[in-house]
UniProtKB/TrEMBL annotation:
HAMAP family on file: Pept_tRNA_hydro_bact (MF_00083)
Lineage: Bacteria, Pseudomonadati, Campylobacterota, Epsilonproteobacteria, Campylobacterales
Keywords: Cytoplasm, Hydrolase, RNA-binding, tRNA-binding
Pfam family, one: Pept_tRNA_hydro
RNA-binding in keyword set: yes
Protein's name in the database: Peptidyl-tRNA hydrolase
Location of this chain's protein in the cell: Cytoplasm
Function per UniProt: Catalyzes the release of premature peptidyl moieties from peptidyl-tRNA molecules trapped in stalled 50S ribosomal subunits, and thus maintains levels of free tRNAs and 50S ribosomes. Hydrolyzes ribosome-free peptidyl-tRNAs (with 1 or more amino acids incorporated), which drop off the ribosome during protein synthesis, or as a result of ribosome stalling.
Keyword tRNA-binding: yes
An MF annotation (GO) of this entry: tRNA binding
Amino-acid positions noted as binding tRNA in the UniProt annotation, renumbered to this chain: 13, 60, 62, 106
Amino acid sequence: MLIVGLGNPGSDYESTRHNIGFMVIDELSSRFNAIDVTSSSFLGQTFKFKNHFLLKPQTYMNLSGDSVIKVKNFYKVENVVVIHDDLDLPFGSLRFKLGGGHGGHNGLKSIDSKISREYIRIRMGIGKPEHKGEVSSYVLGAFNEDQIKHLDEFISHTCDAVTFLLENSMEDTSSKYAIRSLKC
């Protein structure tokens, strides 16, 4: 399985809402003592544990699919899971979905164009700004104080879900780990 966490490279984006997928990959890499197998040709930080791979594309969000297709093809991985931020869900919500539209998420749009839409999406709710014109600054902004209090718990819960998904179906994982929101 290839588990992809979406985000943007660089310290400017490190603690932003858009990088929550990277945060999950960092935690999974630590949990599994994953080995760094990064190659410049992968266009992303790549780690391996057992027969699974973790990927943090370093292409910036809009070109994430370029990295995903390279790792998927090189390692001949069939199953792909993409962990990403979702504006349409309140902070702390966790949802699972196979296929579907990109909902305006440029990272998903890029991946869809490279490998099709048939992959599992782990949608991590980050909430949304009051005004539509603030979307870019919101996703590229830091979590607020209340969210920060629960961020580690949210990331840990998502990692537990991914760990369960490695041995179980998406439906079973969703039944056990989907949440409406953390108590914030």
